[in-house]
Amino acid sequence: MNESDLNRIKEKISPPGSLLIKGPGALKGTVRVSGSKNAVLPILAATLITDKKCTIRNVPDLTDISIMVELLKILGKKVAREGTVLYIEKEEDTPGVAPYELVRMLRASILVMGALAAGRNSFRVAMPGGCLIGERPIDIHLKGLKKMGAEIKVSGGFVELDASGLKGSVITLDFPSVGATENLAIAACGTTDKTVLENIAVEPEIEELFSFLKSLGAKVKHRGSSVSIKGRSRYGGADFTVMDDRIQAGTYVIAGAVQGSDVRVEFSSPETLDALVEKLIECGCFVDTGSDYIHIRTPERLKSTDIRTSPYPGFPTDLQAPFTALMSCADGVSVVNETVFENRFLHCGELKRMGADIEIKKDFAVVQGVEKLTGAPVAAKDLRGGASLVIAGLLAQGVTRIIETDHIWRGYEDITGNFKKLGAEIWTE
Ligand code: EPZ
């Protein structure tokens, strides 16, 4: 990747700046969330398996998406954006490298590995490396690709793959990894043999990817935690509308649980948040779920409750940080058990700076509810941890200033505008 590519990409990363919230504030009103970041990213990677034009609709305006678009351009695609629609066409043959500078900026870049393997190419993809929430290995991805006949060498921080001998296989994932399920499903489209994946992740974003692969022409039969996929030699194009972002939606629903709020969050598939809704009702909230909304009304003070994160349909790990912030002012003790990532309590140190009473014991956070938090300068450490600090700011007396907000812009489109719509005193500097 040359200097100008890298500079062009760096321009896409929104400047951090600070996000300020004056609390305490009850929220009132309606918010509509944008398309799903975690559904769009694998679908963008999957467009690499076809030379035909793909139109992807309901694409959110997020840093992570911009970086993936730049990666597609480096891998030979022409990409145009009109509002929330992306038009993706083949421009040139795929050069065989997904560069480290990019993969380190966006872990989800590793999702191009399956698509490049489907093309039966020989190529190099930078190892994504860890991030603050965990080591984030890709052993399950590589074990599955090896089983599909890919020759793999890991050296110098790169995965070197020769997928010329790609074939169908039966693969049981050691853990229902979302990314590994996505990579292996896309790779399976590279052979007309049948591939069966067992113990797959069943997050709604996975089903969305399967629907997209089917729209390109792959034969995909998904039943519970297993899927069988038969590829074809050439694929068509697709015009595909992506689901709304259930994690963004869940974040606003949790924000709607701050004292005395009355919030309606509009998005597709609210049933995907059943595990969250159940917990909010346990805390004393009144929650009404319709076909395309969740309406939450909240008492002055919540009861505490315990949560344990787990793969879908369990309580989503991506909503653990926002929920932990909410429990910091609930009545009683809440025990938060994070079972998916090994280091996803970084927001707790920042919440404690605001007066939260939290004790971390390995993969448990024991939260003793306090009356109020106090506004303070805090730093976003990761995407969902950043969102948890916004919620804490709504619970706090005074002004909270959040720095390192680039983490937040990665996954929340117009978070300032949306919270303003709900009546929060929130601004950027
Ligand atoms: C996806 O990450 C999401 N990212 C994450 O959302 C989400 O938290 C996660 O799934 C779990 O739901 C995108 O979809 C872009 P995993 P992914 O592979 O695919 C271990 C956000 O905030 N593992 O299911 O990386 C891994 O270390 C982000 O939007 C292996 O050990 O998640 C982790 O502990 C954060 N070996 C656990 O599995 C592997 O080969 C879950 O990881 C792969 C994963």
Shape by Cα distribution: globular
Number of domains: 2
What is the top-level CATH class of the largest domain?
A: Alpha Beta
Derived structural class: alpha/beta
Number of helices: 15
Could you please say which CATH topology of the largest domain applies here?
UDP-n-acetylglucosamine1-carboxyvinyl-transferase, Chain
Assigned CATH architecture of the largest domain? Alpha-beta prism
At the fourth level of CATH, the homologous superfamily of the largest domain is: Enolpyruvate transferase domain
Cofactors and ligands present?
ligand EPZ
Q: What fraction, in percent, of the residue positions are helical?
A: 25-40%
Ranges where pLDDT stays below 50 over 5 or more residues in a row are: none
- Average pLDDT score: 94
Radius of gyration, in Å, reads: 21 Å
Residues in β-strands, percent:
25-35%
How far do the termini sit from each other? 33 Å
Q: Please outline the major beta sheet.
A: 5 strands, mixed
Tell me the number of strands.
25
